[in-house]
Amino acid sequence: MPGDACFRLLQTIVDQRGVTIAVGVPTPGHRLPRISTLILRPASEIQVYSKQFLHADEEPFFERGPASDAVIQPHPCVALAICYELSVPLHAQRAMEAGASIYIASVAKTDQGVEIAGKRLSDIARKHSAVTMMANCLGLLDGVRCAGGSSVWDRKGRLLTQLDEEQEGIIVLDLVTEEVVTSTLNANPH
Fold first, then answer.
1. Domains of the chain by residue range
2. Superfamily of 69-184 according to CATH
3. Radius of gyration of the chain from Cα atoms?
4. Contacts of 38 (CB under 8 A, 6+ apart)
5. Which residues pair with 35 in a beta bridge?
6. For residue 151, which phi and psi values (nearest 5 degrees)?
7. DSSP states of 104-115 as a string?
């Protein structure tokens, strides 16, 4: 999977621009697929993080990834969480013990789920003095409307910015100044 042509193209962009890109994909497991994130960094091999804590409704269809602290090195040290994992305190604890100062959760949440995840990420930020981020999708997923609301919290758990529930967008955070820049797309996904 990491050797696919589309990922080689993304790796070229990463190398040219000096950025890191994380892409959610299914990856092969031993008997079932895994829910994974591929991390592409400049001049580096693609790193794979596979979800370790599965929600009960995922267990019949996916297998857990290998033990990992979910941390991307080097500085700043970033930890990844995939959806349900952000609600598992042990997940964030392991990441912070491994040196993470940023905790990013990719999710598929409804309005209520965004509210719950926001409280949890604010708590993680405050408890561990870490920047936390949530990337949520928009539109229908398995017949349920995902509510957007991608967000960033500072190290004290204060919400710095949140996208709305109507437009796709990008959030850029300067980790030194905590200045936030957002950009939205004009297309409505509904």
1. 69-184
2. Carbon-nitrogen hydrolase (3.60.110.10)
3. 16
4. 1, 2, 7, 22, 23, 25, 27, 46, 47, 48
5. 26
6. -145, 165
7. EEEE---HHHHH
